[in-house]
From TrEMBL:
One of its GO terms (cellular component) is cytosol. Belongs to the RecA family. RadA subfamily. This is DNA repair protein RadA. NCBIfam families: sms (TIGR00416). It comes from the Bacteria. The gene is radA. SUPFAM superfamilies: P-loop containing nucleoside triphosphate hydrolases, Ribosomal protein S5 domain 2-like. Transmembrane segments: none annotated. A motif (RadA KNRFG motif) lies at residues 254-258. One of its GO terms (molecular function) is damaged DNA binding. GO terms for biological process: recombinational repair.
Length: 457
């Protein structure tokens, strides 16, 4: 009797192997990613020793000069990358369509080409024709003789262009449009994306060539394609921005060569994209007079403190279920703050419509904004304006206590630089900078009482 060959099934998203096909991966919960792998092979019990490609050396003797980061010329991007592009590094820049990824990378290619000693930059596009990219480059002023442009969607053709041009920087826009001749799947599929990325990573490591890949995102904002894509590359950046705002943020998610929590701020204009080294003013709405329902806080993005304004509007509801609308804030934390404000602050909000938002398209999710949200809602409820020179920093707990947060001194130093004179902070916040009067508040009721003694005028 001939034994029937057995097949194995593997998830293309997380690599889990299962005995039979299922529609949903039991490990990563992704749908339609289980693929048949053919006849299963028993694991190898023993591996024979082979000749190493290079002898092992003490780590102190390894040369690092050839691996120094080279600046891109775009200071805000270099800040997120940790100083620039490391030779052989593969960077994945992901973002929604139309947010400005291609515009930013054209600026990077132009700045790179302007450097006299650097090798030329090669920009490969698989989504547009070469003429369309040239039109955008003309509009943004990013045309240079040492910028090379190719419209290709085949991995083999890209390798041929690299051999011809011998670039110092390769930009691929985008990895989802590229295909490898060794894989039969359609471009953009899980197998194709993985194969193309693996080929480009091998090219980068072999030649010491920094490569920037453009990636698409899904509806929930995560990188499209297999999860292993983020593991293959060295750096993962998310390009974020509101369609109705000119502000753009490049946020580091993974970085093998620097901090993974830095952000870079840009402003998208008709003639291109420019870095914003001091973005705090973009998130503040300067009023001629104090306005009820507004409160200023200081959030930290990476190592950068940013001042932001929280606005609230409270009105009588005509619905059985009062409306709660949130923009730029964490809706679950706002709901929690409202519940604590009603219970511990003795403010009746159950029959009120409440709207909360940030200014300038800023997105704040850290708990340090809780106190500012509570003060803005209380100010809107009582129709009493807070001092325009007051900042509020602190996390609010369910018992109404104001909890300590990190970096209070650094946050207040930024507030002093922008002209703020008073601050509400948690207890035992540490040394305070000169030029600001810090009021320590232990609970939410104490914070609501303390703001009455901060002069509005």
């Amino acid at each position: 009797m001939v034994k029937k060959a057995s097949s194995s099934f593997r998830c293309a998203e997380c690599g889990l192997e299962v005995a039979k096909w299922v529609g949903r991966c039991p490990e990563c919960q992704a749908w339609g990613t289980i693929e048949e792998r053919g006849e299963s092979r028993p694991p190898i019990a023993r591996v024979a020793a082979g000749a190493p490609s290079a002898p092992a050396r003490p780590i102190a003797h390894v040369d690092i000069e050839s691996s120094r980061a080279a600046e891109t010329g775009v200071s805000e991007l270099d800040r997120v990358l940790g100083g620039g592009l490391v030779p052989g590094a593969v960077v994945l820049l992901a973002g929604e369509p139309g947010v400005g990824k291609s515009t930013l990378l054209l600026e990077v290619a132009h700045r790179w080409a302007e450097r006299a000693k650097a090798a030329p930059a090669l920009y490969v596009t698989g989504e547009e024709s070469a003429g369309q990219v040239r039109l955008r480059a003309e509009r943004t002023g990013n045309v240079h003789e040492r910028m090379y442009l190719a419209a290709e969607s085949d991995l083999g053709a890209i390798l041929g262009h690299v051999d011809d041009v011998k670039p110092g920087l390769l930009i691929v826009d985008s990895v989802q449009t590229m295909s490898s001749p060794q894989v039969d799947n359609a471009p953009g599929g899980v197998t194709q994306v993985r194969a193309v990325t693996a080929g480009l990573v091998a090219l980068a490591k072999e030649r010491g060539l920094p490569i920037v890949l453009v990636g698409h995102v899904t509806k929930d904002g995560s990188v499209a394609g297999p999860r292993v894509l983020e593991h293959l590359v060295d750096v993962v950046l998310h390009f974020e921005g509101d369609r109705h705002s000119t502000l753009r943020l490049v946020r580091g998610v993974k970085n093998r060569f620097g901090a993974a929590d830095e952000i870079g701020c840009f402003e998208l204009r008709d003639d291109g994209i420019v870095g914003v080294p001091d973005p705090s003013g973009l998130f503040l709405n300067r009023h001629a007079e104090a306005v009820p329902g507004t409160s200023v806080t200081v959030t930290v993005e990476g190592k950068r403190p940013l001042l932001g304004e929280v606005q609230a509007l409270v009105g009588r509801s005509t619905l059985n279920q009062p409306r709660r609308a949130v923009s730029g804030l964490d809706s679950s934390r706002v709901s929690m703050v409202l519940a604590v404000l009603e219970k511990r602050g003795r403010i009746q909000l159950g029959d009120k419509d409440i709207y909360t938002a940030t200014v300038g398209g800023m997105k704040v999710t850290e708990p340090a904004v809780d106190l500012a949200v509570a003060l803005a809602v209380s100010s809107a409820f009582t129709d009493t304006a807070l001092s325009p020179r007051l900042v509020a920093i602190g996390e609010v707990g369910l018992a109404g206590e104001v909890r300590r947060i990190t970096g209070v001194g650094r946050r207040l130093a930024e507030a002093v630089r922008l002209g703020f004179t008073h601050a509400l902070v948690p207890p035992d916040a540490g040394p305070m900078p000169e030029g600001i009067q810090a009021l320590e508040v232990g609970d939410l009721a104490g914070a609501l009482h303390a703001v009455k003694y901060v002069p509005v005028g």
